[in-house]
Description:
By secondary structure, the chain is α+β, with helices and mostly antiparallel strands. It contains 16 helices and 26 strands.
Amino acid sequence: MVPRVGEWLSQAVLPLVRLLLTGVVMKAGHDRGHYHSSATILPQYDFIVVGGGSAGSVVASRLSEVQEWRVLLLEAGGLPPPESYVPGLSQTFYLPSDFTWQYDITPQKYSHKSFVGRRERLLQGRVLGGSSTVGGLLYKRGSRQDFDQWAALGNPGWDYQSVLPYFKMSENYMGPKHGMSETFHGRGGAMSVTPTRKRSALSQAFLRAGQQLGYHLIDPNGEDQIGFATSDYTVLDGVRGSTAEDFLRPAAARPNLHVVHSAMVHKILLNEDQRAVGVRFMHRGKTQEVQVLREVVVSAGALASPKILMLSGVGPREHLQEHGVPVVADLPGVGKNFQDHLNVLGLTWTVSPGIIKLPDFPASFQQYITTGTGPLAEPQGDKTSAWVTVRAGGEGGDANWPDVQCHVITPPLSYDRGLLTPELTSLDYGSFMKYFEPVFGKEGFNMACHLMRPKSRGTVTLKSNDPNDLPLIDPNFLSHPDDLSTLVSSVRFLLAVGNTSALATDLGAKFHDKPLPGCETQAFGSDAYWRCYVSHMAASYLHPAGTCKMGPATDPLSVVDHQLRVRGAGGVRVVDASVMPVVVSGNTNAPVIMIAEKASAMIKQDWGAT
């Protein structure tokens, strides 16, 4: 039987943690009261922004810079909780919470064989700031080739040189100046980006391992995207940076910006000319409608934005008719083109005793409450990274375009002896215990690679026409054979990293080579074994994208044009990760903020407010 420790922690421990942290948050100048819902909602606004996450908070802030524009931001979630400000508590959001959407994927055909029901949760932020408030704080933009590919697919203005100024616009880089790298960073932007201060023995050994394999140490947001690097975090002085804190809160005092949280948008109202005239939403138990004069900007994320469009009558005709939704615009691509980074769990190494020193949580918590410093001033554990190409010749022959991003991770999945991890990851409890029991109580680490450019494509569809029903999400993971092959190659890369003298000799790292339950019939270490392992243990890295694809009119699955305007629905734009035609080769928070910056500039230009 799986222990339900996560539920107990959420109900009994987190409320106490929030109480203890409230004073720290206030002392740091983060007054949650500044996010209060507007007492009066006007009958009409120039712009309505649907979703106050990584993108929507930026868009609302930027549009409200134009004083004569009235802007309404509607966010389904509530205020950022006190623990969200503490970088070292970011993993608490894997616990059941009102601050995350608890999306479930449908049972998978090709993957998730070691997961209960062959499915898992896709956690997304349900709070002001969205996933920038509850995510892992890593700042990685992707590779220059990603954006050049967007442009090559028929999206002018989205090449790397065109989007770089928007990355720099939002960034306040707190790291040292390093030659050519400086030209790629912004100073003085709204969101602070701080290099890690951790220099653990494991982190340093991982970097040496990369050098021993012939890789350079790099700034992953600089000129080169292939190599090993320490992490950059959206942190300033020990406090998380989010788009709610860094963009929205400073703008919330503007009289022309109304921020309404805990407001669930049901649909966009479109007139007979297929143009947006308002939005219907639920707030404080009442269904309300507000008119829009200029545009509705949908920034609800790659899972909710296509749902809202479909409930509004914009989507695949047959699917809408199946659920009794009147069709306004037959747009087949809505909800198609789903992509996500896939992550291989459980690859474990043990090390010599005394190498990995995990922080004393009670002492660290006391230090943070008292001084705002210490281990909790950064995300917990090691997260040193590598960006490499494991497929021969690279994608399209470009060996400088990484196809996997890899991390060294502490503590390992086995750390809690199965007390919490199976519950939070949806891994089968019996299989977890059987596989990891030999390394219970041993010091160690995991290494994992994430598939950066998956070829598998999934869907987001309606469960019903009830706005309260979450959509059906079928990522269709590993449906393309190249994805499986790339992840198998990534496992072999990690084994090579583990065999370097930096890890095997200096740290005494030893790979946990027990056959995975379900794969015992395959010769251990063979390609067949690793294909089996990946199909059992691959999981989402929580970077859904692509479901409202940006593309030219000739692309039958394009939902928005290169200015992010929805085809067939006037006065509606989508601004979030769903517009990515191809998901970026890195974490998605920074690119989503860039998309929001660029979209805001385009909207201002279109309405003569540059």
